[in-house]
Amino acid sequence: MEASDQRRLLREMLFARRFEERCAQAYQEREIGGFLHLYPGQEACAIGVLEKARKGQDYVVTGYRDHIHAIQCGVDPRAVMAELFGKETGTSRGRGGSMHIFDIDRHFMGGYALVGGPFPLAIGFAKAIQLRGGDEIAICFLGDGANNQGTFHETMNMASLWNLPVLFVCENNLYGIGTAIERASSEINQYLRVAPYKIAASQVDGQDLDVVMAAAETAIQYVRGERKPYFLELMTYRLRGHSMSDSGAYRSKEEVERWAQRDPIGIYKRRLIDASVIDEAGFRSMDEEILQDIEDNIIRYARESAEPRVEDLERYVYVEGGPKPWLK
Amino acid sequence: MAEMMYWQAILRAHDEELARDPLVFAMGEDIGVAGGTYKATSGLYAKYGADRVIDTPISENSYTGLGIGAAMLGCRPIVEIMSVNFAWLAMDQLMNNAAKIHYMSGGKIRCPFVLRVPGGTAHQLGAQHSARMEKVFMGVSGLRVVTPATPRDAYGLLKSAVRCDDPVVLIEHESMYNLKGEVPDEEFFTPLEGVEICRTGKDLSIFAYNISVHWALQAADQLAKEGIDAEVIDLRALKPLDRDGIAASVRKTHRAIIVEEDEAPVGVGSEVIAILNEEAFFALDAAPVRVHARDVPIPYNRRLEKAAIPNAEEVVAAARKLLGR
Questions:
Q1: Residues B262, B148: one domain?
Q2: What residues of chain A score a pLDDT lower than 70?
Q3: What is the ipTM of this complex?
Q4: For B2-13, how does the pLDDT look when each residue is reduced to its tens digit (9 = 90+)?
Q5: Would you call A113 and B96 a contact, using CB atoms and an 8 Å cutoff?
Q6: Rounded distance, CA A22 to CA A16, Å?
Q7: Into how many domains does chain B fold?
Q8: Cβ contacts (< 8 Å) between B55 and chain A: which residues?
């Protein structure tokens, strides 16, 4: 890989981290409301997989921890932040919020609040692709907790039965909200759970961007070429709480510190420094540029954008000007 | 104009829409090779193939979700759930996704999804196969809910639902698939909004939908013999309900009966009465009356089952009482 691409990827992960940290600050300052689920610790997952996808062409769906997946699909981070601020310029005109980012133009099909809810939607996208005859694929990012929903099993069964071109990415961060995986899942290795459905699967380190990219490349080639589903489990960890209202009582500080040693940004940065692709000074200036950009462009845009008008409250319940063939 | 059965009208609508648009597909349990529990998709599997007439596993929630996802990408799925009772299993996808995606994406993602379900009590099918769930669907923002009472509307509503850009729940009736009626030979579309005046009258308005339209019409015939001129309104579209159409009839007749196959609490009847209160209160000469099912899970025993569900005689009795006869 070119050094410039490596620097770009490092920058994307660092941007993701700073973006989310800035969201936390805005939440504490009450510029963002509702529930807020942040991504620090898991950056290599979305960024590594989508680096190997056709961004803006393949159809991507995920759960409520969705900001970074959207941004990696090419959604304007200013519009994401404006959505969190509840503004009309937000990706969903302020009607969605943090858990419901959408951008049909970038084929980012949304963030959803119900755990396991996107599984069937993902095979629906794959079914539509199949009927239209394109070579796009659907990519469904969800956590390990989602695999205990009925939709997981129903969806895997149909995806396999009908050879639907969908990549399931399981970001296994070891906790379903605040319950440890071994207390909720009778099989801890999630990739083994699709074996009865005859779906190709693998499990790799989700903290090492290069490992994620290599696994994603194989998986995506398989789905795109074979027109069959694939299940990729990425072992990862979220360094912050499940949401902003997390007590943290379910895991030890030592455990969090141990995983902080395997921070995906730290791992990749060290690798690039060792390869002389970047140095400490270069990394610091990259970080400063990002922080400046977030403050000057993204936060400012979100803050200065207009609120939706109350007169528009009932718009978008139904499609405006939709077909009424009975009037002809 | 040909006479055909309710199921044949639904089949015709499927066939025309599948032939017209390659992005239309049908899916559900036993709809393909087996031809559908009520024959409403019979022959389509052979004609359009397994990719567009899809036999699903018994996984209501997820094949509903599959249809919703495909609709978000521009397909026009017609998803059948074999009995409305099983739709409870699909509530997550239907209520959290289909009903809300357009709104919560700020109008940027459309969901032109059609769900067909037979509802109602049939012949001793027991509590878990006799549900009437229109009250559930019509209470949620973002869905459209329509219920055909005739073969004509079974055809025309499905045609309109497939063309509509919003999610539509189409509630058929287990006892009406063999009902015969006239259906025009040329293509037509039944409105997804507005009431249908089935019979004009001046003495009272009887509001009904789906199977209760037939009870209302029978009752109106009986009442006519007694010198009472009843207007029968098929509500047809339960979401959104036609507030103006409901009020207009009562402004003319000044009396209202609502006939619903469902039990009364939180239902079509209570909603129509609320609309009358809000839109036509001073036009009423008497308090509106509901004729409805008893508030019980539907029992198996034939005699008990019959007693649980209203009929034309109950409508006649209610009308006499309302008019002080």
A1: no
A2: none
A3: 0.97
A4: 999 999 999 999
A5: yes
A6: 10
A7: 2
A8: none
